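Input sequence (188 aa), recorded before submission:
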Amino acid sequence: MDEVNESKQIVLQMGGALKKYRKEKNMSLDDLAELTGVSKLTLGNIERGETNPTLAIIWKISKGISLPLFALFKSEDPVNLYRAGEGLRFSNDQKNWIIEPVFKNASNDIEMCRAYLQPNSSYHPEGHHVNTTEIATVMTGSIEIQVNEEIYTLNQYDTISFRADCPHSYTNRTDSETVLHISLKYGF
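Predicted structure, token format:
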């Protein structure tokens, strides 16, 4: 399957999962829009597979319905291979922060992804789900991670763990892309 068809399939899968969730909860699009802070029009487009939502929109939906970020992207395969740079990828509006799902356990409380931060750029995510722990390991490059008001500089293979529902950001001050391995442990 080529990259365009695979991307379309992933968008359709997410839309179908979101619609199924909404129907199971007897919610209208208006109800879901109120719960997530995402417009009814955007949610309808996602459900129909007519748009490829940004990472910020997916985070809003995830937080609003209290599901892990990748819960809407389920695989029924007993073996899943995630190659770097292939398959499901999400970016922020500036396209300087890209994440790729790597692993999600069946109980939906742990997710892992690869994250790429472009040279001389920053990423400031919204706070994650309440009681979520984020663990980030630098695989290549170096990065500054600000948690609340404290800044931590990490180099290759350094790891940091912190409460992800508090303000945090990632800054790459180098001229090379930084690659991270990020794990999220949800507290619900």
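Checked by second reader. The helical segments are 3-24, 29-36, 40-47, 55-64.
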